Amino acid sequence: MRAPVVALLLLAEAAAAASPLWDGVAGPGPERARRLLDDGRRLLGERKVGPAIAALEEATRAAPDEAEPFVALGEAKRAAGDTAGAWAALERARALVPDDGDGRLALDLGALRGEGGDFAGVLAELRRAEASASAATAEADLASRLLGDAYLALGRV
Asked: How far does CA 145 lie from the centroid of its chain?
């Protein structure tokens, strides 16, 4: 009985080693997490959401104190329609970097709030994105434009 189990484990290990997702990724640490993050983003760009989520979940385990894998995981889970999972990943990222240097995290959270119908929450996230992003970033410009559009739509301008 043990021989088939061992054989299955060896086959699974060989299949994982042959997968381009795991190619060159070995051991714990930032290098492994960066490769997994890059693979997850590439897979998401190719619209392979399931494999992207798997890679990004592994990246969060490899670098649990880094926000970027959680942001990417949130984006992937949102693409999969998993709003609760996206929210959890993005909130974890916010806990790791509360100042949200470029405003991207607030934009992602704002989009989730909008999908849930929380328009006051959308405005709060857009204000946060605009305030946290430096004036020269695309995120700051986008936040300012979206905030202006939101105020116009709500009749507050």
From this structure: 23
Q: Give the integer Cα–Cα distance in Å for 7 and 87.
A: 39
User: Tokens 């204000």 — which residue?
Assistant: 127
Q: pLDDT tens for residues 24-71?
A: 444 557 899 999 999 999 999 999 999 999 999 999 999 999 999 999
| CB-count burial class (<10 Å; 0-12, 13-18, 19+) for 6 | exposed
For residue 105, give both structure tokens: 């995290």
Residue 64: φ, ψ to 5°: -70, -15
What are the CA-CA distances from residue 87 to residues 1, 3, 8, 95, 133 (Å)? 43, 43, 36, 12, 21
* Element spanning 109, H or E: helix 104-115
> For the residues 62-84, what does the mean pLDDT come to?
94
Collapsed DSSP state (helix, strand, coil) of residue 20: coil
- CA angle, corner 101, sides to 99 and 107, nearest 5? 90
Distance CA 99, CA 104 (A): 11
